Amino acid sequence: MDLYSVVCVRDRAISLKWFEVFFGRPADEIIGDEFLWQVGENAWVVIDDRHVRSSRVGGTMITFGVTDLDDIVARLAAHGIEHDPVETYGNGVRHVEVLDPDGNSLSLAQAPTR
Known about the structure:
19% of the residues lie in helices and 36% in strands. The protein contains two helices and eight strands.
């Protein structure tokens, strides 16, 4: 099974710059008006600014499991991207929520090392 998670945005140019910083690279693929980042073997995040999606802008919530939370947070900060404080849950998972320019929630979660 493949997963395509669509993030609806208002302005593609602004969002492209932001998502390139968030993922640390340009889009992996461009299909028509959609820009795609591969985030897993069969998982993709797509940004889409077509008018048909305008009512859904800002409503996305995605959590990414990562192994390098501190590095990602440092990269975001170096580019002026703000985020909530990093939380540590009772089970040791570290979590932070980052909002894109349209208010879409892209959270990062790192499980404790064993």
